[in-house]
UniProtKB/TrEMBL annotation:
<feature type="domain" description="HTH arsR-type">
    <location>
        <begin position="13"/>
        <end position="107"/>
    </location>
</feature>
<protein>
    <submittedName>
        <fullName>Helix-turn-helix domain-containing protein</fullName>
    </submittedName>
</protein>
<dbReference type="InterPro" id="IPR001845">
    <property type="entry name" value="HTH_ArsR_DNA-bd_dom"/>
</dbReference>
<dbReference type="InterPro" id="IPR051081">
    <property type="entry name" value="HTH_MetalResp_TranReg"/>
</dbReference>
<keyword id="KW-0804">Transcription</keyword>
<dbReference type="GO" id="GO:0003677">
    <property type="term" value="F:DNA binding"/>
</dbReference>
<dbReference type="InterPro" id="IPR036390">
    <property type="entry name" value="WH_DNA-bd_sf"/>
</dbReference>
<keyword id="KW-0238">DNA-binding</keyword>
<keyword id="KW-0805">Transcription regulation</keyword>
<dbReference type="Pfam" id="PF12840">
    <property type="entry name" value="HTH_20"/>
</dbReference>
<dbReference type="GO" id="GO:0003700">
    <property type="term" value="F:DNA-binding transcription factor activity"/>
</dbReference>
<dbReference type="InterPro" id="IPR011991">
    <property type="entry name" value="ArsR-like_HTH"/>
</dbReference>
<dbReference type="InterPro" id="IPR036388">
    <property type="entry name" value="WH-like_DNA-bd_sf"/>
</dbReference>
């Protein structure tokens, strides 16, 4: 695992070679985590945890971001007091070509089908 730190605060992340398909699929199997990933992909930039409109408590939100980080789906780094989240698209596309795009497209179609908006 690599450590990414600013001002002495580090968060563990799996190296690219340590990312496992089953961990990625597990992380993306939760609707809220999938929502987070969809927003990161759509905005194509790093976002703070508070920029996501999640209908859960802060501790539950923290849990979801931790699952995404520990599975290798997102990278979290501190910038000052803000914890920034970025999609590890390059790593995921290298390891599992087409997977992320297919999942994001399927999630978008599902939202439209269920009337949840895209």
């Amino acid at each position: 695992m690599t450590e990414t730190a600013t001002a002495g605060r580090a968060l563990p992340h799996p190296e690219r070679s340590e990312i496992r398909l089953e961990a990625v699929l597990h992380a993306l199997s939760d609707p809220l985590r999938l929502q987070i990933v969809r927003e990161l992909a759509a905005r194509n930039t790093e976002l703070t945890c508070s920029q996501f409109d999640l209908p859960v408590t802060k501790s539950t939100s923290t849990h979801h971001f931790r699952v995404l980080r520990e599975s290798g789906v997102v990278r979290q780094v501190y910038r000052g007091t803000a914890k920034m989240n970025g999609l590890r698209r390059e790593d995921l596309d290298s390891l599992f070509p087409g997977l992320l795009d297919s999942l994001l497209a399927a999630a978008g179609r599902q939202c439209l089908r269920l009337g949840e908006g895209a």
